[in-house]
Structure formats: C-alpha cells, structure tokens
Amino acid sequence: MLTRTLAEQGVRAVRFPVVHLTGDALLHQEAMMRLELDGKTYRAGDFIPWARRLGLLPALDVAMAGRLLEELKATAQPEPLAINLSMETLKDPLGRQQLLMLLRQFPELAPWLWLEFPENPVIHHVELFREFCAQVKPLGCKLGMERAGRGFARISRLQELGLDYLKVDTALTRELSGNQGNQGFLRGLCTLGHSIGLQLVADGVQSADELELLRALGFDAAGGPGISP
Question: Greater confidence, 27 or 161?
C-alpha cells in the first residue's frame, strides 16, 4: 500500500495554524502528512509505524516536501510553512541528498519553510543534525525541534545548532493550570530558549485560558485545537 501510494503520488498534507501569542498573527501553518489511496485518507498513526518498519519514511518525507514546495510555488502569496520531518530521512544518505536537492531547487521558497524534527531522535543523532543545520541554514530555512521538553538542555553545544524555535511537547502543556511543577519547568525552558534566541511554541493548546497561562509563562506562539484558523 505504501509503495503504491508513493507511485501514485498520493502523499498529501493537512495544515494547522500556529499563531503568535501577541496579536494572534500567523507564525506558520504546520503541515501534517496524510496518504490518499483508493478514495481513502489515512492519518499518520495509520501508516507511520509501518513506514518506519519498512524503511519508507525517507521516501514519504521527500514526497511530502516536494508536494508542499510545488504548492507554495503555485501560490500567489505564500505563507510560512512548517514541515514535520523524521530523523530517518537524515540518517538515510539518499533521503538526505534528495531533501537537500529539493530545497536547493526552490531557493526562492526556502525562506518560507520551517523544518522541524522530533527532539528525542535529535538528541541521539545530534552531530548528524548539526551537519544538516549547517547545510540548510544558508538557504534561509528556519529549523526547529518538535515534541521538545526535558531533553533539550542536555544537547551539547546547543547554541551552535542554529535552531530558530522549539515546539514544546503536548504532554507538558496538557492540563497545565493544575500542574505547578510543569509550569515551573516551562517558565525555565522559555527563559533558557530566549537566552539563545529561540522562539518557544506550545503545542496542543485546547482553550483561551490555556493561551493566557502560556503567554504568562513566556511562550511566543501556540498551536492546537484551541487555535482558530
């Protein structure tokens, strides 16, 4: 099914808004992968575990990035766009090369892209990520970590990575008003991130009350079901 979807160019993405907490202006649209095959749409949870087992995540990532770049090229007024990518793509020499070739093929669009990778794999392959950052930063892309949290401060030579933002794990922001421990941790994380020039983004926000609390803790932007398009 996965190889047929790739062959039939069925890799798609849905977009969700991430907004600044001051003024509600758009920070970027976050693109999440979907597959379309035989008239059905499959969410990430349906196919990502199989794609990982079968070594197909790099091909899916490259297909999604290519489709999104084509869509941006066809848009009269592009909006900033965040693309969730897997560390498997950077670990795969062909996948990494294809991704870099795509970005270099559309130099005028690269500044609109926010490329993000999950925190835990980055920690375990930090030198590979550092090398990738050095390759794409000159193109004008922004780089971030998603599902970020307690492992962030353990990354060696953190300030040298060239990161632009952190998208904090939903597990840390869920039911935040009743969790003083997480509030203290997130306030410190925002202080640390700001000290090295990062924007802090809260993920999975459910309500206006959560937005107010996150703003008070020092977050710059937020996304989730509680964010209006």
Answer: 27
**Whether pLDDT at 209 is above 70:** yes
- In the numeric block, which tokens belong to residue 31? 């693109």
What three-state secondary structure class fits 76?
Answer: coil
Strands 165-168 and 142-148: parallel
Of the candidates 62, 121, 60, which has an alpha carbon nearest to the alpha carbon of residue 87? 121
Closest CA to 88 of 78, 73, 98: 98
Return d(Cα 144, Cα 166) in angstroms, integer: 5
- What are the beta bridge partners of residue 145? 117, 166
Q: What is the pLDDT of residue 135?
A: 95
Number of Cβ atoms within 10 Å of the Cβ of 32: 15
Backbone angles phi, psi at 19, to 5 degrees: -120, 155
Q: Containing H/E element for 18?
A: strand 11-20
* β-pair partners for 18: 28, 223
Nearest to 34 by CA among 49, 44, 46: 44
- Tell if the pTM clears 0.90, that is, is over it: yes
Q: pLDDT tens digits for 97-155?
A: 999 999 999 999 999 999 999 999 999 999 999 999 999 999 999 999 999 988 887 88
